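Title: Comparing notes on inverse folding

I've been comparing how different people in this forum approach sequence design from structure. To keep things fair, I'm posting one structure and asking everyone to reply with a full sequence. Here's the target:
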């Protein structure tokens, strides 16, 4: 994509309404624009990142055996009355009436709807287990929406729901999601630490929050320093989901990790304790028969008795992750995207668009990068080198390939790694080879 044709409305100054780093940088980098309080339009650059994150989440859910579907944003109030949550949920739920005066709501979560779908179809233990997920927009009418996409009213979420015949099988489903979440966040360049958590309005008696460490995090967290050294992706990469996962889960929950509310200073030696700030990016729950009993989601057990299914639910804030990654990965110049979620892998910078040799070399490199199926944003604008470098640093692409008259005269281009700042002078062919590796 040529930057001269790309819709990228950059801001030079920090917006006054943006209180945290991710909100400032997402607005300045032309990723989002506010439509109303806590509701945002996703512009092309931001939307590319959102879709990259969504795809990683999808791939890891599929790998675990979960099956994708799609449920509507609007739900019937009657289902929520069956579960007993309609009146309990509070003002965060947006309640509406359709033209027939039927009570509806904009779904903040989907436990009731998925339970209704399940109970209408599944009647026997032979059809279990089942784990169904979707990636859908949610709405929660926050009293004080703030911090951009980190605490908005409308947000994109992956939520899935497991159904099992008994507690043992349900715990295996829970453990699958525990492992899948570790893999998911690690693929995004994040170290997400599972911490025991309150279940809140979802209910149940077993729950873990997945929290990433960031200097600008929303809450205090405490963990064993071994977490900082752990290579979670290497450990989880070859996990067989059909095997017993409890030893793996036990290993990662044995290391101390606690939120501020649950921290016990006596539970870990001071020389092993790390105090930091954290951002929640995922939450998993096992809540047994909290929904299946009141909604009569029952199946025939092996002995012929009708029993309520054991359930769990599992959420990842897909749109929230965009902000969370920025909070964890930025510097004074802008965003630093991990390659797996970057909107483009490389920014091709023509330092002198008026120079025919520069332009010809850049056009050739652009064609070769695209032929190699590398995602490239080509800055072909007639702007100063300083402005071009500032743009590339702000939007945070992993690599910058810089072409200027002086370098071309020596047969070289400059390749800069955004995260480390390391610059190399290479032949165009060597630079292409390195980017393609």
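Reply #1:
Here's my take.
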């Amino acid at each position: 994509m040529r930057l001269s044709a790309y819709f990228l409305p950059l801001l030079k100054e920090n917006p006054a309404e943006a209180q945290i780093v991710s909100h400032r940088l997402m607005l300045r980098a032309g990723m989002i624009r506010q439509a109303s309080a806590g509701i945002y339009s996703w512009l092309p650059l931001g939307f590319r990142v959102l879709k990259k994150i969504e795809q990683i989440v999808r791939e890891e859910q599929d790998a675990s055996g979960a099956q994708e579907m799609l449920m509507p944003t609007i739900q019937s109030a009657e289902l929520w009355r069956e579960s007993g949550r309609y009146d309990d949920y509070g003002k965060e739920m947006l309640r509406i009436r359709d033209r027939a005066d039927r009570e509806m709501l904009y779904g903040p979560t989907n436990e009731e709807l998925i339970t209704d779908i399940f109970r209408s179809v599944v009647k026997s233990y032979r059809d279990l287990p089942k784990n169904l997920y979707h990636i859908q927009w949610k709405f929660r009418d926050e009293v004080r929406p703030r911090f951009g996409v980190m605490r908005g009213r409308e947000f994109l979420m992956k939520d899935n729901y497991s159904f099992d015949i008994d507690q043992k099988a349900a715990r295996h489903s829970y453990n699958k999601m525990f492992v899948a979440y570790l893999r998911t966040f690690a693929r995004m360049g994040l170290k997400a630490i599972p911490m025991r958590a309150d279940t809140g309005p979802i209910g149940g008696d077993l729950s873990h929050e997945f929290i990433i460490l960031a200097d600008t995090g929303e809450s205090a967290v405490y963990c064993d320093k071994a977490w900082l050294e752990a290579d979670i992706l290497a450990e989880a990469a070859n996990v067989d989901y059909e095997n017993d996962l409890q030893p793996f889960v036990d290993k990662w929950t044995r290391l101390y990790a606690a939120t501020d509310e649950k921290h016990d200073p006596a539970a870990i030696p001071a020389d092993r304790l790390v105090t930091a700030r954290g951002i929640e990016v995922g939450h998993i729950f096992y809540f047994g028969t909290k929904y299946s009993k009141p909604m009569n989601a029952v199946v025939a057990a092996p002995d012929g008795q009708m029993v309520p299914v054991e359930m769990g639910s599992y959420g990842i804030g897909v749109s929230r992750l965009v902000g969370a990654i920025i909070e964890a990965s930025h510097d004074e110049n802008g965003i630093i995207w991990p390659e797996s979620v970057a909107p483009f892998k490389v920014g091709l910078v023509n330092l002198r668009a008026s120079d025919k040799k520069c332009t010809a070399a850049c056009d050739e490199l652009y064609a070769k990068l695209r032929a190699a199926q590398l995602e490239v944003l080509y800055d072909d604008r007639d702007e100063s080198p300083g402005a071009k470098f500032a743009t590339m640093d702000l939007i945070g692409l992993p690599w910058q390939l810089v072409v200027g008259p002086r370098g071309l005269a020596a047969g070289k281009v400059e390749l800069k790694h955004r995260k480390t700042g390391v610059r190399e002078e290479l032949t165009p062919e060597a630079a292409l080879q390195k980017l393609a590796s």
